[in-house]
Amino acid sequence: MSSFATRKCVRHTEREAVARCPSCGGDFCRECIVEHDGRVLCATCLAKTVATTGAAKPSAAWLPRSGDVAVTAACVLLLWVAFYGFGQFLKALPPQLHEGTVWREALDNPGHGETP
Question: Alpha carbon 116 to chain centroid distance?
């Protein structure tokens, strides 16, 4: 059983093979293989695939899928609502709390603010 490291490219016999074409089973170097629809194919098998399915679709793997965009937009909206609510909470706190004097006033006037 030969390992992949000892295999050579079918077209370039001096180069080490890095992948096997799933269609024809040949071993190929990096220069002889391409990725098409998530599969690594040799140029000959890619040409056959394109000929049978029509024109090759442009690879759009870098484009986000519409579901990813929707989830990202929902997360951004959720974070915006959470930070807005937290900001409103901080805004509703009495100014003495922001100044750090609320504790001093509570300690100086222990009965202040209690209902008789």
Answer: 61
